[in-house]
Amino acid sequence: MIKIIISMLFFLPVLAGAENGAKPDLYKVASGELLESVGSAARKIVVTGFSYSDGRDSRDGAVVAERIASELAKIQGTTIIESGEVQKALKKLNLRRSARIDPDAARDIGRLLNADWTVAGTLTELSDNRLSVSVRMFGVKSGETRNASGGIVKRDWLDRYRELLSEQTARVEDAAGDFYARGMTYSDLNEYDKAAADLGAAIALAPDYWEAYLSRGSVYQRENKIADAIEDYTKAIELKPEAGEAYYNRGAAWFMCDQPDKGVEDYSRAIEIGPTDAMASKDRGEIFSRAGKKDKAVEDCTRFIETAPKDGRAYYNRAIVWITKGEYSMAFQDLAKAVELDHKNAAAYYALGVVYGHKGGYPGVIDSFSRAIELDPGYDTHRYAHYARGIAYYAKGDHDKAVRDFSLALTLDPRDYRSYEGRGDAYNARGEYSRAVADYSAGLGIYTGDPMLYYGRGIAYLNNREPDKAIADLTAAIDLVPGNAEAYHRRADAYFLTGEIKKMLDDLTMAVKLKPGLKPELQPKIDALKSGAR
Is pTM beyond 0.70 here? Predict the structure, then answer.
């Protein structure tokens, strides 16, 4: 009676968990997770600065790296290479302070510093001065990701930036570097107008300062001044054609102003410059998916996985493309890997619930949606999670829990006619026929094109010994779906109550014709009615 509606999930909020439930002491937890299964030998580690996913220059990455390095240093048997040596290595390799560290760069940095492991990661800005942190540890010999972790941190170091700002203002001179440095501090404090002004002053003093154009473009983009951002990124590319981050940022800007083809072109160029640029592959894959180019989206997601094989997000992203392609077995495999790598990925559990729902694995639906809500209370506000779990409880025969979930779904969306249908079914199963009728009627008050609402109400009327009303509703269900064998079957029961035996016989005969599997149950009744008619 109830059908699970599979939604298009490519843009399920991967960071939804980030908005609500942070790991306690992320730096300590992440450090422990990074060293899982590494063993006590070969623990000389270099921790690089973390980069923003949007490529902006920022001191935030250095702060996060410093705190993770501090926690790693507390673990017996580890040796952490000093940050000063790391900066020298970055400079020698011609890498910016906030450059994204891909597996190749991680290997190069580690080799240069004679390390065993390189730790790097990305930052994504959230609301209320919080950051989502994704951290990976690469093997220097192999360049492959060994372990990964992540979570949420508070930007509780902003007072340090304000102190730094005072020092910079006191000593600023008529030099491009001084204005650039202060502009980045303003940027870190989200004072965008002042940041843009200082970066503009740096550009005026040094017109070939490509990093200043890149950074000002990022400031404009965060202010949603997309045309200005694109202009600055374009100038940065003119000055430094091999600047992959400029192509990446401009690709994102093109996408924001609804020019996806140009976005794909820029992401593709970023990938050419840095074949292991996981973020460019991920974002281009999202554009392909939105454009309906599912096979290309799978290719990019696969490239993301190859670049970051220990990053659960990579498998999650590909799983969502599989779901939109209707390939649920492939989606299940990727989601299983995603939660194996990150057992706190609420979005992956949510998507698993969707996949289980499509496959009819109702225990999996219940477990997956329950886990998603447990990890991220934000999912408790997702109507679909409660609706789908309600269906699963109903199929399991736990009608009380089904009623509870459908009621929660209706609290979140009072016009959700499918949840009225589901709760009506549960009330029917509990023998509460008047409540069932009320719910089906409420659903029909929202949408009259759902035959199952008429069917369900017809069954409730039939069970409540109101055959005339049952006949009217079951007839409406048949009018909408003439092949509904069960509607003919149950309308025959209603005709029996009204004494309309010929109509009963006709309906039973039609039910068997439409659904031969009903013949063992209904044929004896048909034969008896025909015999009685003679």
Answer: no
